[in-house]
From TrEMBL:
InterPro entries reported in the protein's UniProt record: Chr_Tranpt_l_chain, Chromate_transpt
Origin: domain of life: Bacteria
Membrane-topology annotation of the record: Multi-pass membrane protein
NCBIfam families registered for this protein in UniProt: 2A51
Keyword set, alphabetical order: Cell membrane, Membrane, Transmembrane, Transmembrane helix
Tagged with keyword Transcription regulation: no
Transmembrane segments: 78-102, 108-128, 140-173, 193-212, 224-243, 286-311, 323-340, 346-364, 371-389
This protein's name: Chromate transporter
Primary site of residence: membrane
Length: 390
């Protein structure tokens, strides 16, 4: 119990202070878990990051879950996730309730949050592009993926793009794989891993059938967010197009409400996947938020439990590395398409908005301003522009 409380306290502190997105989160984790507390060494930490990069879902949350499991078993993973996630969930639920209660849709700062989202996603596209598409073949995969998503925007098309990129990666990039990949040991048994993956597959197959048969609101919410959490490669920003396709065209939430919440999600610490808490609240109150949050994060937990016993060997195989290379390139294209629609089309309504977004992008990219500070600056600048020119 003492170990679990220690994990909860440490992860809660990180959940309250880890601003700046997944890359920044990994830096905070290293400082706390590796350098200060010595819960694991640098090599083990690097191996955990590498494994989580291979999985769909929020990489930083998965790293936190894995460290919690190494420290305190299965329950250690659960409390590690709770501590890191709960602070931003609470803030986003409260924001959604305020949005609904006070008709914030026309507020100037809401429009400013949409412009902030444009700058942040543009920065994410550029950063991911440099890392995941460093050569012409991978740039080509990204561009084709973006074009297909823009022409045929749907969740099914996105999944098809990822599968196609995996096949291309297998044939094109396997021969360039890293030969000296370090092994990885973990206390989770292969039997536990198989059970966890079996639960994941059973839910992916069974939930849509049961949800359609019963027509229960909470079951429908859980089904939507569980499916999205199961197939999102590339982290928090890539969850945007899938969630948008699931909730906006179906009338569960309006496009403006969606973008306002996405902008607000940049201002809070912790994982961007907690955006699900905002959407769940907008759809069906606080209970909806709990259902959506559990739904979108549960696949990550099941995947970590299921993958850790097996991925050590898979990482050594050139074919698997090639597949992930192709998938990562397609992620850049999917994010590029999402940047245009709905981010750019919902956030940029005038030349002033575009110039405003360019300033915020420059703060992020050239001045290395933290994302949470850019959100604050964006809201203040938006209010000033509104007072002076409107």
């Amino acid at each position: 119990m003492r170990s679990l409380l220690e994990i909860l306290g440490t992860s809660l502190r990180l959940g309250l202070t880890s601003f700046g997105g997944p890359v920044a989160h990994l830096g905070y984790f290293k400082d706390e878990y590796v350098d200060k507390r010595k819960w694991l060494d640098d090599k083990t930490y690097a191996d955990i990051i590498a494994i989580c990069q291979f999985l769909p879902g929020p990489a930083s949350s998965q790293v936190g879950i894995a460290i919690g499991m190494l420290r305190g078993g299965m329950w250690g993973g659960v409390v590690s996730w709770l501590g890191f996630t709960i602070p931003s969930v609470i803030v986003l639920v409260l924001f959604a309730l305020l949005y609904q209660s006070f008709a914030l849709g026309d507020a100037t700062w809401i429009a400013s949050l949409k412009v902030v989202a444009v700058a942040i996603v543009a920065h994410a596209v550029l950063g991911l592009g440099k890392k995941l598409t460093p050569d012409r073949p991978r740039i080509a995969i990204a561009l084709v993926a973006a074009l297909i998503m823009l022409l045929f925007p749907s969740a099914i098309v996105q999944i098809s793009i990822i599968i196609g990129a995996a096949i291309i990666g297998f044939y094109m990039f396997s021969k360039n794989a890293e030969p000296n990949v370090q092994s990885f040991s973990v206390s989770i048994t292969k039997k536990q891993g198989i059970i966890s993956l079996s639960i994941l597959v059973a839910l992916l197959i069974g939930l849509p059938i049961i949800a359609q048969a019963l027509s229960n609101t909470y079951l429908n919410i859980f089904d939507i967010f569980f499916r999205v959490g199961s197939i999102v490669f590339g982290g928090g920003h890539v969850v945007l197009p899938l969630l948008e396709q699931e909730v906006v065209p179906n009338g569960l939430i309006k496009s403006g409400e969606f973008m306002a919440g996405y902008g607000m999600a940049q201002a809070v610490p912790g994982p961007l996947f907690t955006f699900a808490a905002y959407l769940g609240t907008m759809i069906n109150g606080v209970i909806g938020a709990i259902v959506a949050t559990v739904g979108i994060f549960l696949p990550s937990f099941l995947l970590i439990v299921g993958a850790l016993p097996f991925l050590s060997e898979l990482r050594k195989r050139s074919s698997f590395q090639g597949i992930l290379t192709g998938v990562n390139a397609s992620v850049v294209g999917i994010l590029l398409a999402a940047f245009y629609n709905p981010v750019f089309t919902s956030g940029i309504m005038s030349g002033a908005h575009f110039g405003f977004a360019a300033i915020l992008f420059a703060l992020l990219h050239f001045w290395k301003t933290p994302a949470w500070m850019v959100v604050i600056v964006g809201v203040i600048l938006g209010e000033l522009i509104h007072l002076l020119f409107v």
